[in-house]
Amino acid sequence: MSLSMTYEGVEKVFDPEGRNPVRALNSVSFTIEPGELFCLLGPSGCGKTTLLRCTAGLESITGGKIYYGERDVTTIPPFRRNIGMVFQSFALYPHMSVYENVAYGMRVRKVPEETIKTKVTEIMDLVGLPDVLKRNPSPTALSGGQKQRVAVARALVYDPEILLLDEPLANLDAKLRRRMRAEIRRIQKVTGITTIFVTHDQEEAMAIGDRLAVLRDGNVEQLGSSGELYHEPQNAFVANFIGKMNFFHGNVASAAGANRESPVRIGNELEIRPHSERIKLEGPLSPGQDVLVGARPENLSITNVSSAAGEAGGSGGGIVGRVNVIQNLGQITRYEVVVDDAYAIDALEVDMYAPVDGVTEGDEVAVQVNGEKALLFAPETVADTVAEEEEVS
Amino acid sequence: MAADSTRTQTESRIERLLQKDWTPYLIFALPLLFLVLFLFWPLATTVLRALSGPGFDIDLGNLSLENFNRFVTSPMYQRSLRNSFVVSISSVVFASLIGLPMGYFVARVKMPFKNLFLSIGILPIIMPSFIGAFSWVILLGRQGIIRHFLNQIFMPFGIVIPSIYGLWGIIFAMSLTYFPFVFLLSYGAFSAANPMLEEAAMMMGARRPRIMRTITLPLVIPSLGAGAILVFIRSMGNYGIPAILGGDQYVLPTLTYFRVTGFWDLNSAAAIAMVSVAITGAALLLQKYVISRREYETVSSSRSEQHLHTHWLARLIAVAYCTLVLIVAMLPNITIIIMSFFEQWRGLFPTGFTLENYLRIPRMVSSEIFNSLFLSITASFITAVLGCMVAYITERRRPKGAVILDLAVMAPFILPGIVVSVALLSAFSGDTVLPLGGTFMIILIAFVVRRTPYVFRSVVASLTQLDETLEESSMIMGANWLYTFRRVTLPLIMSGIIAGTILTFATLLQELSTTILLYSARTRTVPVRIFSAVQDGYFGQGAALSVMLLVTVFIVVYAMNRMLGRSISSSFKLG
Question: Which helix (H) or strand (E) holds B524?
């Protein structure tokens, strides 16, 4: 009996008549399937929380419509929408016991005391806190993880039609965060309630969501499963936001005609021929056109310049750079390689499954790109998105 | 197509209006109505009267500046204006000289009884200032015991200690009454300042005096400014002290009173009132522009401990200084307690021990006690409701007019008590639409208008600390605005409301400057009675009543702090 959720050209402008109107949402349209755990992902200020608050009715929208199932809820105030919400701060009432907190929504609905009791017990079992209910302390006495569970219980207990989670894990420490995101997914699957989960943490979003929407400046940039977003990002922003992406300045080779199979050169050293599905540019590639080449760290490799020159006579080539930092992460070894600005926007991150012999920090290395796995994007400034992401996390 | 879309747009607009929760807007109207009727309208009539020429009639056809002209032509007006400035500015200077070192000592020197100093340090502003003035008359008046004593010592050297009456007496009493504002605010700043800022200066090679001059003092300037402006506003509006100690020296409040009661010249009183409002308003603006711009972020590391001076000399000086100040500041209260048990006190010792002063109270002033309690309790209650509503509206709902409401509620903060009285008399005394002269009602209104800012601020403070998501989550769970307010907001801001209300009650019990123009034989309050007893020379009786008032006020404030678990000092920061 879970409901779908539909956004139809949703717009939100803050302070529309003021001197500095702020467009927070730009004709957002998509549908969330019944029972789906859906993640809204994006850097701070992208509009994800605004979208969630509009979904809840805490903010009114300035255009478009929002549907719960078939019902148009656009103008319905939050208290008539029958939704559950978990806030970042948990918003547990310090002046009520845990039991009263969880019972609140049912008291509002004038549910008989007997039913309240059964349902609170049930839900507290589901979130794994039967002991806490027995002691029934004030929520201020609970640990972060317990507060989180109580908040989830409180939002679910009165069988809402939609569950909204606003960065619910942001106030927990890293270890607890990992455990709770599995917990939330488990509880969501048990109840089967259509759920929207807002986060700025792409790892969290990928781990928890059935599907994700990446937002930027009030626009949905891409929508899909974690796999789709990781392997098939539609643009440089999404590519960079979901996992690490290295960007090179590329140039369509001039010898070829205007088609989608032209090779792309990075400087004079590298020539790559990406799979046509991985070209995220409109239309044919015209010779001389500037493009942005994206490659995941695992699709780059490095070779020791001195030894490579000796072995293969330099034909393997690659962009020459200097190793800045080497991080041994156990499973992989991560090399940060600084190359000339002409090649790449930022320092490159190269993940190797085994340390490269004889390479230490400060050494010169040659970087190769796995052309098959590389992506082509329209040129855009991606540097600022990187900075934003770091600032948030 | 286009017509169709406009129709759906209007439809959805209507739908939105119907769906909206209108209760808060209805509630919004109530305080607005109150403020229009009892603040805006009286102030408007005050302006009209001020421009109408002397007398009692509002003459719209013949507006003139004659009333203001007196500030140029009449030497008495000029002297009062000058006196007011001299008194207020000197009080600010002396209160700062007393309070600032004390704030520094208590915050930065390792010394015993810190909490005691903080608690007692607040007493001078809790206690009615006119009672303080009255005690100084006993101590330093013409027959004053300390003056008597000092003169016996210094007379042989040809030095005569002047009596307390006059400008210096007023300044003396006011500084000792209001220094706690500076003390508490600068104490707060000194103890909240980030110690790392001073450490950083030390690391860069600065020595203590330089750090003091370049880091420590500049950081407390905003707080010092806030304290100074409180002292200024209070001394500008104080009626009791200059009325008792002024002698033939008038200040603006006493001049206002004199114009009304002496000549029933309400119009020129209105003009004087406007001038005093202009002065306090200008001072407040000055503070806003000069000081507030230098507001620094000093709270970032409030957890880290201050380095306290531990040198024995520093500790000795600090304790000696604070003790001395507090003894001098508390002297009036001690004096008044002793006085209340005697008939007279004209020499070194009081004479004629008696309990008659107290025994007479039930017989003589029972109606005043009833009036005081009735007025204070009722007004506190109304103030609580009103202050709470306005605070909630301006803080949470933010409708378009909220700023006006906010300003209107805070306006009486700069209106001296006597100005509020003049405004209410302007609008409601004599032959008007709503004749309220001499009623309980007019005093109640004056109390409510004057004290709402305090509850308002107290509630706003609790509301800003209250996480808004607590209310939002209640809405999400299906509760409407009223349910949310009742079950979530109200219980969580209750302590703020109670604190503000009790404080209001305690200050209203001792209110003199508002009541003095508004009371009639039927509505006389305890402070008015004390005041007239002092003026008529019945010191014993006045003292007994004062002690009763002091004890009541002290118990109320103390009980509140106990109950709510805060320190007395924190509740008076706002004044």
Answer: none
